[in-house]
Amino acid sequence: MVEMIPLFGPVPGGMEMMVILLIAVLLFGANKIPKLARSTGEAMGEFKKGRQEVEEELREMQDDGTESINTESTDTETETNNS
Description:
The chain is mainly alpha-helical. About 80% of the residues lie in helices and about 0% in strands. It is built from two helices and no strands. It is elongated and about 65 Å long. The N and C termini lie far apart (about 60 Å).
């Protein structure tokens, strides 16, 4: 059986999350945390959109490359049959 290894170590539990939240409140202030979360969410959304656009472009390039290879092989077969 394959064991999954977490990328950033073990996931923090309840008490660790409370300590992290307390440190965040002390560093940023209670009224700035929602703004920080909102901007982080917007940045993640933009990142996902960009990633999807790049994936689409790569798929289109791959499809175009496959079509041109198929067209070239068909042309070559036609020339061979005509000879």
